[in-house]
Amino acid sequence: MGGDEVTRLRALRVKVAGTRREAGWRQALTQAILRRCTDEDIPGATHREDLDEAAEHAGWLLAHDCDQWSFALVGRVHEVRWEDFGDPADRDVAITMLSEADDLREESAWFSAADHEALAELLLSRHADRGVPYDLDLAVDRLRAALRGCDDRASALYLRYRLGTALATRVTGQGAGPADLGEAVALLENVLPHMPEGDPATYQATFALGGLLRRRGLANGSATDLEAALAHLRTAVSLDPGDTDAAVLLGMVRLALGHA
After folding, report:
1. Hey, CA dihedral for 41, 43, 48, 53, is it positive or negative?
2. Element (H, E) at 121
3. pTM for the whole structure
4. d(C-alpha 48, C-alpha 255), whole Å
5. Rounded to whole angstroms, how far apart are CA atoms 50 and 130?
6. C or N terminus of the chain, fewer CB within 10 Å?
7. What pLDDT, in 10s, does the model give residues 8-29?
8. Are 115 and 105 in contact (CB under 8 A)?
9. Is-contact 101 68, C-beta < 8 A?
């Protein structure tokens, strides 16, 4: 269906070029290409030349009308191209364009929870590569915005997990706010009982929560926090016995509690 739509729209180029219909045609073709490239039911449907074409059409639309929709469409094309081909330049463009679209949301009141989440994931990816605190701060803000606009229970659970782990990352850096530690603990304690066994995210949440509770327990002298940290880190080690980070933290907590 998606492929037929792309072929049909491409065939209209001669008819619409230079007419008032050209902008609508370019937008429809760009969206059709994106649907095909992101359709999980069509294996191998993503081709670099298709996304290059989509980027050209989206760029034309932005050059002719710098509205929120155009910025978001350019951002979406580069986001998909980054996800499929891994060029950091695409990630940078996607972040810039989606941020511009977000800045314009007051004018048209359109920026969904999914859009906020997509921007947050791009920022978290870049922060993991480059370690720029500003990217992490922006990602936390976008995750909060996504949560505010989310009305799906499963999606909200995932967003709380992502916000909790993002705050956990910020807690270990220089830009931590005074409430970050407590909020991260509360978020991860809330989501962990609902996360599926065997999911890598479950391990990440367990490990992060254990590390946070250790940090808080050492800071305030709370044996309760340290005991809770011990339990979560034991679980983390059992979930991934090869992860030396969890094993090292577990040993530190044992020492803090005076356990053999």
Report:
1. negative
2. helix 113-130
3. 0.83
4. 53
5. 29
6. C
7. 888 888 888 889 999 999 999 9
8. no
9. yes
Q: In this structure, which long-range contacts are made by residues 229-238, counting pairs with CB atoms below 8 Å and at least 24 apart in sequence?
A: 229/253, 230/254, 230/257, 230/259, 232/206, 232/207, 233/207, 235/206, 235/210, 236/203, 236/206, 236/207, 236/210
Residue count of the chain, please give it.
260
Residue 178 has which token pair? 């005074």
Taking only the tens place, the pLDDT of each residue in 124-159 is: 999 999 999 999 999 999 999 999 989 899 999 999
Q: What is the DSSP letter of 59?
A: H
Q: Taking all residues of the chain, what is their mean pLDDT, rounded to a whole number?
A: 89
- CA proximity to 13, closest of 62, 45, 56, 44: 56
Q: Count CA within 13 A, CB hemisphere, residue 116.
A: 22
